From TrEMBL:
The keyword Cell membrane applies. It comes from Ficus carica. It comes from the Eukaryota. This is FAS1 domain-containing protein. Residues 77-218 form the FAS1 domain. It is found in: Cell membrane. Belongs to the fasciclin-like AGP family. Residues 231-254 are annotated as: Disordered. It is a lipid-anchor; GPI-anchor. Pfam families: Fasciclin. May be a cell surface adhesion protein.
């Protein structure tokens, strides 16, 4: 018991000592802090303003305030050949367009924002021509024939009625290449002076190009008009036969030889003198008989 009491007393003394140390440290800490001297207020002077200066104008920025939308890719040029090939019935027309190089002219016009209307004959339309009709044409005539099927503007089916005749084509002129177009309801009739036909369908149409199907080739007067026949040559005189010409030449040569020879000339003069003397004698005898007949009366 005595030992336990000593231990408890010792424990209390340790606690008391620790409490004393902590209180002493906390009481001395504000006294050990260095004293701060009061600071004097600093007068703040207003900044000295510089004299008014004009700032130079700045060049405009190259960066736009509103960004433009990305540009669309340029649309591919219209390929007339592919359009006709998809139609499936224009093989002869495609071949003529390529051979005459008119297809290059068409595509160049479409690429420069020009508008066109093409009246496209089918393969059956070309087969309806006379045999050798195309082969007999010159290169220039083939070019004119193809251009005769092209109108230099875009024409929708509803606008054909606004055209005035003769309609202008890309051929030479409207005198030798007239084209008359009339409408009856939904029908578009075409006349060249040699061929009458109508538009039988639309192959392709947008705001720049229109291709219409026709079942006959448009034959212009300037190429296919019937020509007047040449007058028959005047009949020539028949040449004399060799025998007659030889006999005639021999007789004429003999006659000329007789006339040119001196003997022949003398014989001719003697014969002429005898003839004159005979005539004089006959006249004298007639006068004598007349005198005697008067005396007897």
């Amino acid at each position: 018991m005595v030992k336990l009491s000593l231990i408890s007393l010792l424990f209390l003394l340790v606690l008391a000592f620790l409490h004393y140390c902590t209180t002493t440290t906390s009481a001395q800490s504000p006294a050990q802090a260095p004293a701060q001297t009061p600071t004097k207020p600093v007068l703040v002077q207003p900044p000295v303003q510089a004299p008014f200066q004009v700032t130079p104008a700045q060049s405009p920025s190259e960066i736009p305030i509103v960004q433009a939308p990305p540009r669309r890719a340029k649309p591919a040029p219209t390929n007339v050949t592919k359009i006709l090939e998809k139609g499936g019935i224009f093989g002869v027309l495609i071949r003529i367009l390529r051979n005459t190089q008119v297809i290059n002219q068409i595509e160049n016009q479409l690429n420069t924002s020009n508008s066109l209307t093409i009246l496209a004959p089918t393969n059956g339309a070309f087969s309806g021509l006379k045999a050798g009709a195309l082969n007999s044409l010159t290169t220039e005539q083939k070019v004119q024939l193809v251009q005769y099927h092209i109108l230099p503007s875009f024409i929708s089916l509803s606008n054909f009625q606004t055209l005035s005749n003769p309609v202008r084509t890309q051929a030479s002129n409207t005198d030798e290449y007239p084209l008359n177009i009339t409408t009856q309801g939904n029908w578009v009739n075409i006349s060249t002076g040699l061929v009458n036909t109508s538009i039988s369908g639309t192959v392709y149409a947008d705001n720049q190009l229109a291709i219409y199907k026709v079942d006959r080739v448009l034959l212009p007067l300037g190429i296919f008009a019937p020509r007047p026949k040449a007058p028959a040559p005047a009949p020539m005189l028949a040449k004399p036969k060799k025998e007659e010409s030889s006999s005639y030449s021999s007789s004429s040569s003999s006659l000329s030889s007789e006339i040119n020879s001196p003997g022949a000339a003398l014989q001719t003069s003697n014969a002429l003198g005898l003839t004159i003397n005979g005539m004089v004698c006959s006249i004298g005898i007639a006068l004598v008989l007349a005198v005697f007949s008067v005396g007897s009366i």
